[in-house]
């Protein structure tokens, strides 16, 4: 799943950066330098007006405002909430 597809408030872990459809090769380098590295925890905090840009994102302990094109480059695994895990366990 891409970071841009996470629901607001959802948490995940960065899997890596996807170069497909990236208009500027420097974009991936910039995202890496900002800390979007495999294994880093990430959360989509808020979306801009109307669910659009910018996306307020926390990676590690740092907050960023990303454009949609930037968030589409970041592949993430979604963290399942503790209460959802408890509901899936057989009684």
UniProtKB/TrEMBL annotation:
One of the record's GO molecular function terms: transition metal ion binding
Keyword Iron attributed: yes
Residue ranges annotated for the Ferrous iron transporter FeoA-like domain, each copy included: 1-78
Signal peptide interval: none
Pfam assignment, any one: FeoA
Keywords: Iron
Presence of the UniProt keyword Ligase in the record: no
Top-rank taxon: Bacteria
UniProt-listed InterPro entries: Fe-transptr_FeoA-like, FeoA, FeoA_core_dom, Transcriptional_repressor_C
PANTHER family registered for this protein in UniProt: FE(2+) TRANSPORT PROTEIN A
Protein name (Swiss-Prot/TrEMBL): Iron transporter
Species whose genome carries this gene: Hylemonella gracilis str. Niagara R
């Amino acid at each position: 799943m891409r970071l841009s597809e996470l629901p607001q408030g959802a948490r995940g872990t960065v899997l890596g950066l996807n170069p497909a459809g990236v208009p500027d090769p420097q974009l991936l380098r910039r995202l890496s330098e900002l800390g979007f590295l495999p294994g880093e925890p990430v959360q989509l905090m808020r979306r801009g007006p109307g669910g659009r840009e910018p996306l307020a994102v926390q990676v590690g302990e740092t907050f960023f405002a990303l454009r949609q094109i930037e968030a589409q480059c970041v592949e993430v695994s979604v963290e399942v909430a503790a209460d959802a895990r408890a509901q899936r366990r057989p009684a």
